[in-house]
Specification:
The complex is a heterodimer. Chain A is mainly alpha-helical. Helix content of chain A is about 70%, strand content about 5%. Chain A has a domain of about 200 residues. The chains are: A mainly alpha, B alpha/beta.
């Protein structure tokens, strides 16, 4: 029982990170109808930004205030990078076919991975301790405070996103654009601003995910974004791409399934299981768990 | 205009490439070319860097003494980025383009196994400094090593666990795609069970994984007295941190793949306190040969050598010795001399190459104290 509880916590903290990344995929898809494959690299850049910020501030003793400052600065940096990528790589292609943009996104992703290897070095770096880990026992399971921090921060961020999207003017604009881009622009919505804003939010969430991931798994390298990025993409598809609550739930499901597979079946299937889910979802319910079926009007 | 620019730049690149290529080709006959492939980057970068440093030291030393057969040794180093596929490419390049007479192989067994068949086919002798998986040298009669092999290392750690650590219930955590790790684990399991120990749990991971909590939680549920992790330092670093986070607090122990200053980086410094691992040589050994090497190494690199540097130095020196005795740079003659190496006084002990082309020598066990590796005991074959 205590083992099960512990695996549950392991899975939830891993899954909530996937959820944060998945939200970025889903937001961009909702607006622009393409998969931003460079999103996993934004996650990686978030981790490195945290690494260099912590070193620049000379974090010797873990400090909550410092950790929050690093988190917010990183979110700012990654959101800037996200906007720059959108302006340089995706905006010029706005009227070309979806496939062109998709391939460009893969190109951007590879570009960032290998530029990262050049700039940061290819060998893994040890992420500094920016927040102290305290372990405590709950019903025989040992839960690290890191895992709690990850769970709480990601929940807060997801609720903040929910409020932005549902209650603010910009959120309404995002939903309008996502519903019908042309119609929204005819109603006087500035499409470029909405798209930039989407990239700001998505990339800042990925940056935050990068920091949270590195707190839990303190070894970072320029290729670290690839697998979590793919898993988050699967999470977004599982939840129904374009659907916000779907991405969060999808992330948690992928995290849990992965952890339980490793813990109770075999770690050989760790990555296979996520991709198996992707294939099954695409075969059985391509719109995902929460996705709406769009009726094509003729 | 745009088209012209494009064509011009392509032309420039081609010319540049040809110039580079022909530069590489120029080979003066008063040099003996030795190839080296190492993981200078990638997740086991310190293995390759230490190996390279040790080997360069050997080359400089022999050249300052007049070289071999009246010629200077020239080392050509290729980075395989720690990837088996890249290894095959760079070994092909060393043999076919650079025309090296012999090759110093990788530290990691899986990469040495990728390079060895190519050397064997081309009849180019290859010495691996630190690949301990037994299958590496069974690839062919041109493949040698200057370190002990895993069945022996597993034997050492099994004895050490039972007699010195006094533990009977051990769990295993194995890197499932790594020949070195699975080979060590199999041998350890066999010897440990035969000597009355008990393996309570066996879990696997894949190198490069970041999340080990699921496996560690499963291990914790079986309450082992100790966990044996035959893996590489990058993964062990993360494993140890996460083990403590989920409350798996027993002693961890492992093998020579742990040997790197990066093992105890970050929070792993506390997490690995009191852990043990087996390796080839201890810098604490007072023997003058060893201390002399450490002094030379520190003068040149301003850092302490690790086991990979020691072994690479020995691999280089044994190779130069064999070329000297063969009085030729022909692969077959060098190979015959390498097979005859007996009681060679190396910095990692007295080296004798046996019929399986492996070195027979003792292992040392190190303890991790405050982030440093402290000599614990020597276990003879």
């Amino acid at each position: 029982m205590s083992e099960f509880l512990q695996q549950l916590i392991n899975g939830l903290s891993l899954g909530s990170i996937y959820a944060l990344i998945a939200l970025g995929y889903t937001m961009v898809y909702g607006i622009l109808k393409f998969i931003n494959f460079a999103h996993g690299e934004i996650f990686m850049l978030g981790a490195f930004s945290g690494y260099y910020l912590a070193r620049a501030f000379g974090v010797n003793n873990p400090d909550i205030v410092m950790a929050v400052v690093i988190l917010i600065l990183t979110m700012t940096i990654t959101s800037l990078i996200g906007v720059i990528i959108e302006k340089l790589a995706y905006k010029p292609l706005r009227n070309s076919s979806k496939l062109t943009v998709l391939i460009t996104a893969i190109g951007v992703s590879l570009f960032l991975q290998y530029t990262g290897q050049l700039l940061f070095g290819a060998d893994p770096k040890s992420f500094p301790t920016i927040i102290e880990n305290v372990s405590f026992n709950v019903f025989g399971a040992t839960i690290g405070s890191n895992q709690i921090v990850v769970l709480i921060s990601s929940t807060v961020l997801m609720f903040a996103l929910r409020i932005i999207v549902m209650k603010t003017k910009m959120g309404i604009a995002i939903r309008a654009v996502s519903n019908n881009l042309t119609a929204a622009s005819l109603m006087g919505i500035n499409i470029n601003n909405v798209i930039s804003f989407t990239f700001i939010i998505g990339s800042s969430l990925a940056g935050a995910a990068g920091i949270l991931y590195s707190i839990n798994y303190p070894s970072i390298d320029p290729l670290m974004g690839m697998l979590p990025g793919l898993k988050a993409f699967i999470a977004a598809v599982l939840g129904g791409i374009g659907n916000f609550p779907g991405a969060s739930v999808g992330g948690l499901i992928i995290g849990l399934v992965e952890t339980f597979t490793v813990g109770y079946l075999s770690p050989t299937y760790r990555d296979a299981i996520a991709f198996a889910i992707l294939i099954i979802i695409l075969l059985v319910k391509p719109t995902g768990l929460f996705g709406k079926k769009e009726i094509e009007k003729v | 205009m745009k088209n012209f620019l494009k064509q011009a730049s392509v032309l420039c690149i081609i010319i540049f490439a040809i110039v580079l290529y022909s530069c590489n080709k120029s080979n003066t006959s008063n040099e003996i070319l030795i190839g080296e492939y190492a993981s200078l980057t990638g997740s086991e970068a310190t293995f390759g860097q230490s190996e390279h440093n040790g080997l360069v030291l050997a080359v400089e030393e022999i050249n300052s003494k007049g070289g071999v057969l009246g010629k200077q040794i020239k080392l050509i180093t290729e980075d395989n980025q720690g990837k088996p596929s890249e290894t095959q490419t760079v070994v092909q390049k060393l043999i076919n383009r650079d025309k090296v007479v012999a090759i110093i192989g990788e530290v990691a067994s899986s990469r040495s196994k990728a390079g060895a068949p190519i050397c064997q086919a081309a009849k180019i002798p290859m010495i691996t400094p630190a690949s301990t998986n037994p299958e590496v040298t069974s690839i062919g009669d041109y493949i040698f090593r200057v370190c002990f092999i895993d069945p022996f290392q597993a034997n050492v750690m099994s004895k050490f666990a039972l007699n010195s650590m006094k533990v009977k219930k051990v769990a295993l955590l194995i890197d499932q795609k790594n020949a070195y790790s699975t080979g060590l684990a199999d041998n350890f399991k066999k010897v440990f069970l035969e000597s009355g120990g008990e393996i309570v749990e066996e879990q696997k991971y894949s190198a490069g994984d970041k999340d080990f909590k699921a496996q560690l939680t499963a291990i914790k549920a079986k309450n082992p007295e100790s966990v044996f992790i035959p893996g590489y330092y990058t993964d062990v670093n993360l494993i140890s941190i996460q083990a403590r986070e989920i409350g798996l607090n027993c002693t961890l122990f492992g093998s020579d793949g742990w040997e790197s200053e990066k093992l105890t980086e970050g929070k792993a410094k506390d997490a690995l306190e009191g852990s043990f691992f087996s390796t080839h040589v201890s810098a604490d050994d007072p023997s003058p040969v060893i201390q002399n090497f450490i002094k030379k190494y520190q003068q040149k690199y301003n850092s302490k050598p690790d086991a990979m540097a020691f072994l690479a130095y020995d691999a280089g020196m044994i190779l130069f010795d064999a070329i000297k005795k063969a009085n030729s740079v022909e692969g077959e003659k060098i190979k015959n001399e390498l097979a005859k190496v007996k009681d060679y006084p190396g910095v990692t002990g007295i080296i004798t190459i046996n019929e399986q082309r492996n070195a027979v020598k003792p292992a040392v066990v190190m303890e991790i104290k405050n982030g440093n590796f402290v000599y614990k005991e020597t276990i003879a074959p």
